[in-house]
Amino acid sequence: MAVRLAQRLMKTQTPFLCRSYPMLVTKEKTEDVAHTKSSLQKKVTVTDIPQAQYGGRHAVTMLPGGGIGPELMGYVREIFAYCGAPIDFEVIDIDPSTEGNHDLEYAITSIKRNGVAIKGNIETKSQTLTEISRNVAIRNELDLFVNVVHCKSLPGIPAHHKDVDIVLIRQNTDGEYAMLEHESVKGVVESMKVVTVENAERVARYAFEFARQNGRKKVTTIHKANIMKMSDGLFLEVAKKVHKDYPELKHDNMIIDNTCMQLVSNPHQFDVMNMTNLYGTIVSNVICGLIGGAGLLSGRNYGDHYAIFEPGTRNTGTAIAGKNIANPMAMINASIDMLNHLGHKEHARVIQEASYETIVDRGIRTPDLGGTNSSTDVVHSILDILSNKRVNWPHGNFFCQN
Ligand code: ATP
């Protein structure tokens, strides 16, 4: 990984701020397709890799991960089977205690074959320096350069703030997650933060394009350019240049520490946020904490070819595993995102409506949302609501059955 990154950096020899880079415009209309052809993809030739589809059914890689991952995936499969969602899962368990990367390589090959994956958080138990985080390795290997978390309040959920509606757009492969650390002399450790024009532009472009296509008004770039003048300075500089192609949108910027304070005191001032990798994980956790916790929101990871869907805050939840108290909604929402991405809009819609009715109207909620229900109570309510709904899918009408 380090070697690949070094090779990539060596190719970029022109000084960052002197490089001119194209200002491109994508033409896609909807949020779902915005990622499928990034700005850079328009310039360089990238061939679309089709999603694996057999007889109208999509094959999707499922990586349950550790902690609560396997039980949450079980609920997703139960709901999909119940309403006839045309998805076949290729389930791959990655053993966190092994030192080798065989499982990981197999998982990456599977995602490359299928084009799409749903995943829980994968633990990396080994502390050896050569053993990198499997989650980061998957995102890097598949070049999933952007992570999108739509942080939208649900009515009636106990929360510090109501009516929050922020779209968080995070650079997903570079920044502080380069995992290039070394001890230069005894007692001195250095960690490299990598910002490239290419990836800063791709993520900024995604943020502005998303804002344009979804009727948003403002993009705020989050940084610490007052201290990290070169790295965050570049990220901010690139965002300002990309903004010139989106004159109808407002662009402002905010320092990460102030951002956390502003989020806690007045989150309604934010619309779309554009940020580097580490700030993204901090800010997504802050916002999720403000509007309902780790068990609610989903996150989407996109590159030019592949997409992975997962819970927004990427928690393992080991301490609550096997207790039937984990909130299944974040993973169910990830599965709804995945259905939408694959074009199974009708199945996505009915599951989304049944979930909303369960949590908001029926008030069936796990303890993290202030409820007393179990995970399976939530899932059974969703199945109960689905049993009354008729699902139309391309191969004719289908009634959910008890
Ligand atoms: P562990 O994985 O051992 O629980 P942790 O403290 O790092 O360790 P995370 O997995 O990062 O915990 O999760 C953060 C918090 O969010 C924990 O309190 C966890 O129980 C809670 N949490 C995460 N996912 C869910 C969920 N789906 N439902 C309810 N609570 C959750």
UniProtKB/TrEMBL annotation:
SMART domains for the chain: Iso_dh
Protein family (similarity comment): Belongs to the isocitrate and isopropylmalate dehydrogenases family.
Keyword Mitochondrion assigned: yes
Superkingdom in the source lineage: Eukaryota
The keyword 4Fe-4S belongs to this UniProt entry's keyword annotation: no
Alphabetical UniProt keywords: Mitochondrion, Transit peptide, Tricarboxylic acid cycle
Protein name, as recorded: Isopropylmalate dehydrogenase-like domain-containing protein
Gene symbol of the encoding locus: 106094458
Any single GO CC term annotated in Swiss-Prot or TrEMBL for this entry: mitochondrion
Highest classification ranks of the organism: Eukaryota, Metazoa, Ecdysozoa, Arthropoda, Hexapoda
